[in-house]
Amino acid sequence: MSPPKPVIVLVRPQLGQNIGKAARAMLNFGLTEMRLVAPRDGWPNPDAGPSASGADLVLEQAQLFDTVQEAIADCSTVYASTVRRRDLVMPVVTPEAMADAIVGTEGRTAILFGPERSGLETEDVALANAIVTVPINPEFGSLNLAQAVILLAYEWSKRSELAVPPSKELEISAPHGEVEGLIGQLEEELEAKGYFHPPSRTQATKNTIRTIFTKTGWSSREVKAIRGIVRALVNPARNRSET
Questions:
Q1: CA 137 and chain centroid, separation
Q2: Got the DSSP string for 130-190?
Q3: CB count in 10 Å sphere of residue 170
Q4: Cα–Cα distance measured from residue 182 to residue 83, given in angstroms and rounded to the nearest whole number
Q5: Which of 25, 49, 87, 220 has CB 3.0 to 4.6 Å from 149, enough for a Cys bridge?
Q6: CATH fold for the domain made of 7-163
Q7: 47-62: per-residue pLDDT in tens?
Q8: Domain spans of the chain, in order of start
Q9: Of 74, 85, 62, which is closest to residue 10 (Cα–Cα)?
């Protein structure tokens, strides 16, 4: 059984549009549980829907809380997404380390994000188990709310079932005899055209051609296609007016 997905907690978000964009970022990476702590303009917010670009599921299920304590009451591990607070002595981890820890725990995990203008207050950060900080340009540390959410959600998704490429049925490799038939046909036509020159290099050139066609795992369909191309190249051009 896979560990629970992290909860995204937006603390005192200011604009409905940013809540919608955060929901969009979440759903892109498989996260659906959003919790809102005292949003400035109340909730529901009519500006959130259009910005969510179809991530209505996240908004419809979003839970409203008065305090951060209430929002994280059922979570055993909490990360505060912020720059390092010098007034607090607590672990500071990278997004990679956070994601590793989340998938390695069976308890519920929450990630806190602060208001757009000022970020999390010291009292909010103090409720977390660790600070998670995205390494960005120290001369221009200006991530908006949705950008911060998408960076951490993406890092988590790399360790989830989303990281597994969708399965695609591959064609069965052609039998050895079919590939040999293609190689033989090609060598015969090249011989006829005087391709193998000088004679001392003939076998080496044939070996190179064989390597090209034996190491790629051609399917029967592909072998037939290549043989058809060879025939088309060596046979007289068809008069289309006769067809």
A1: 23
A2: EEE-----TT-----HHHHHHHHHHHHHTTSGGGSPPP-PPPPBPPHHHHHHHHHHHHHHH
A3: 8
A4: 63
A5: 25
A6: Alpha/beta knot (3.40.1280)
A7: 999 999 999 999 999 9
A8: 7-163, 176-242
A9: 62
Q: Find where tokens 């709310």 sit.
A: 145
Q: What is the pLDDT of residue 55?
A: 95
In the structure encoding, which two tokens stand for residue 236, read together? Answer: 């007289």
Q: Tokens representing 20?
A: 């919608």
Tokens standing for 210?
């064989």
Crossing angle for the helix pair 145-157 and 95-103, to the nearest 10 degrees? 50
Which residue, chain included where needed, has tokens 């829907």? Answer: 49
Share of the chain above pLDDT 90, in %: 59
Phi and psi at residue 63, in whole multiples of 5°?
Answer: -105, 145
> Using one digit for the tens of pLDDT, what is the confidence trace for 95-111?
999 999 999 888 999 99
